[in-house]
Amino acid sequence: MNPTTTPRPMVGIFWMLTTGLFFVAVTALVKWMGPGMPPAQSAFLRYLLGLVFLLPMINDLRSATVTKRQWKLFGLRGFFHAFGVMLWFFAMTRIPIAEVTAMNYLAPVYVTIGAAIFLGEKLALRRIMAVIIALLGAAIILRPGFREVHPGHLAMLIAAVVFAGSYLLAKVLADEVKPTVVVAMLSLFVTLALAPFAFANWVSPSWSDLGILLVVAMFAQAGHYTMTLAFAAAPVTVTQPITFLQLVWATLLGLLVFAEPVDIWVVIGGVVILASVTFITWREATLKRSPITPPTNATKV
3-state secondary structure string, 174-210? Predict the structure, then answer.
């Protein structure tokens, strides 16, 4: 948020609520498609169809001067994000929506760890405790030894790590090139990175699947746009707690539409993780430094 702009907390909260609904719609549509199409192909088609939304960014792309090092970073970020998206699509069709949503909250926590290791970010005792609490929240969700841990859970654990890597690279690149170029390059490189995995096990998509994936791309793009509006209107410390409602929407959606029973431990674990992320975000704002920990939605597909 621009420090010279007057904060409008209610406007920021409204746009973050809207963002949450858009992203829950994304998860619902992918869940509705089911596992009929391989995850890599679903992810590839989602990004391929979404390239149409890059048209407004063409002028920025044409005028951008990208160094050899930056090309490598864009490529590496594209690979990380593509891997995370494939894992997310895999998990989405195999475990309840609420569990995917709750475990997605882990990505900003891994970003905090990665920032300390790779970017030299100071990791004070309070932030270390917040990270430990977040990992405890993940343990509450998974409850190893007390329930079966499905491949979908493992996929989300790994997805959170690679999404964190993608965000850290975005943080480096955003300091060097325009944000629109960073966004456009992500879409281009993710599409390229997904292509060989998609064609290796190609299944002819139905028109219905293509339509759903186009709408998924539209909702994802709209979600990122409204999230930007939320950050422009109010500090992240105001909008971040609102992301908890995504878990509420996802839980209700899973119950009412997909007949997924409500698991109170998943809700508790998600609250614990989000509380940790909110604390880390608040600490960054209190110290008045450039934020390292991203808002929860920033790592979504």
Answer: HCCCCHHHHHHHHHHHHHHHHHHHHHHCCCCCCHHHH
